[in-house]
Specification:
- This protein is α+β, with helices and mostly antiparallel strands and 164 residues long.
- Helices cover 32% and strands 23% of the residues.
- The relative contact order is 0.22.
Length: 164
């Protein structure tokens, strides 16, 4: 089994935030595209990737583009991860047995899905992929009407790919 690929329909999901608030993909998609980024707090590639996702969130988050960090850990560990890596976008909790991760076909973390407003997966990215993140940032710029700016800064040592 592998992660759901581009062109597939995202499963209809509902999760709780670390604060206990219920959110659903359908409600988020009513506002615009969603980036669902699955992670585990102990994953070194997740730790490397999430500050770049936060940078993208600061550029394009809110309004009509939703960012979700979907944790495979408990609320306390997830809050600690978010604080340590500066992640301010909403963190959601997959339940015991990882039912949502399984619905999306996860085999590795991080795995990110850019889900279009029609519920179709536009980008699936497993591990850290610089080109995939640039593609997601460009889509976020289009969706928000904000200017496309480079996600990675000049002189930043960023590999093209880092497996999860």
């Amino acid at each position: 089994m592998s992660a759901l690929s581009s062109g597939k329909t995202a499963p209809s999901i509902s999760l709780s935030t670390v604060e206990g608030e219920k959110v659903s993909l359908a409600d988020a998609l009513a506002k615009g595209p969603v980036l669902a980024a699955f992670f585990k707090v102990s994953c070194p590639t997740c730790q490397f990737t999430f500050p770049f996702l936060e940078r993208m969130y600061e550029m394009f988050g809110g309004g009509n583009f939703t960012f979700w960090a979907i944790s495979q850990n408990d609320a306390e560990d997830t809050r600690s991860f978010a604080e340590k890596y500066g992640v301010k976008f909403p963190a959601l909790l997959d339940e015991k047995g990882y039912p949502v991760s399984n619905q999306f076909g996860l085999t590795n973390v991080p795995t990110m899905f850019l889900i279009g407003q029609d519920g179709t997966i536009q980008v699936t990215s497993v591990g850290f992929s610089k080109p995939d993140l640039e593609q997601i940032a460009a889509a976020a710029a289009r969706a928000t009407g904000k200017p496309a700016v480079p996600l990675f800064k000049s002189g930043e040592a960023v590999p093209e790919y880092k497996p999860g």
